[in-house]
Amino acid sequence: MRIAVFVSGSGSNLQNIIDAVQDGRLANVEIAMVMADRDCYGIVRALDVDIPTYLLEDRSTFSEDADHNLEGEDIDLIVLAGFLSILTPEFTQKWEGKIINIHPALLPKFGGKGMYGKQVHKAVLESGDTESGATVHYVTAGVDEGEIIVQGTFPVEKGDTIEDLQRKVAEVEKEILIEAIQKINLGL
Ligand SMILES: Nc1nc2c(c(=O)[nH]1)N[C@@H](CN(C=O)c1ccc(C(=O)N[C@@H](CCC(=O)O)C(=O)O)cc1)CN2
Ligand SMILES: NCC(=O)N[C@@H]1O[C@H](COP(=O)([O-])[O-])[C@@H](O)[C@H]1O
Question: Residue 144 sits in which domain range?
Fold first, then answer.
């Protein structure tokens, strides 16, 4: 299975996929390309292992530019990994059922436009919820509205900070993203 990974940030989820391919947890999966909508450390991680990488900085045309780069590459799955731009309806329609995203909360709670990174953790803490987690879902034109594939949970403890949630989310994401990709890879 050939996958393309879209990034905007540190690329910890991309690194997790790279590691899983290299150690055999993701057998017969190839990261064919990485595309970024801004200069970010995710690009460094991709270049370190010689993955073809594209920096598409014009946000107004990212979906169109990304689609152009995907043409003829036989991509089976697009993974949004810490990706922060909203893809156009045209793009999500063309690639329907082939785009997944990882979100740092238990959707459908704490999702939608404006809900990314620390904003999500802040909202979870302010809600008083005693459980949170992360979600891998299919991507549609709406933001964070697609069918849920896998979720993982952790307890939110009294006194937890945004940084505590970031750490706990990262641990759960390491598991569920690989589980989701493998599930799709196996046609389950
Ligand atoms: N069409 C879709 N595009 C994207 C989806 C999706 O479900 N449908 N998921 C997001 C990922 N995401 C949450 O998991 C998310 C990312 C970004 C935002 C957001 O509000 N972004 C800001 C801009 C932030 C920036 O560029 O620094 C905005 O659009 O105003 C919300 C949710 C990826 N794309
Ligand atoms: N709504 C999108 C969103 O908030 N994505 C979140 O960005 C973080 C950094 O990812 P990274 O380290 O892989 O770049 C991850 O926790 C991911 O869930």
Answer: 2-185
Split into its structural domains, the chain has a count of 1
- Predicted TM-score (pTM) of the model is 0.98
12 is in an annotated binding site: yes
For residues 106 and 144, give the distance between their C-alpha atoms in angstroms, rounded to a whole number.
11
Query: Residue 188 above 90 pLDDT?
Result: no
Selection from 181, 93, 166 nearest residue 136 by Cα: 181
User: What pLDDT digit, counting tens, does each position of 61-101 carry?
Assistant: 999 999 999 999 999 999 999 999 999 999 999 999 999 99
How many whole angstroms from 111 Cα to the centroid of ligand 2?
12
Measured in angstroms, how far is the CA atom of residue 140 from the centroid of ligand 2?
18
ipTM value of the model? 0.98
**Annotated binding residue at 59?**
yes
Active site residue 103: yes
Residue whose C-alpha is closest to residue 1's, from 98, 135, 145: 98
Which ligand has the minimum distance to the alpha carbon of residue 168?
A: 2
CATH code: domain of residue 145: 3.40.50.170
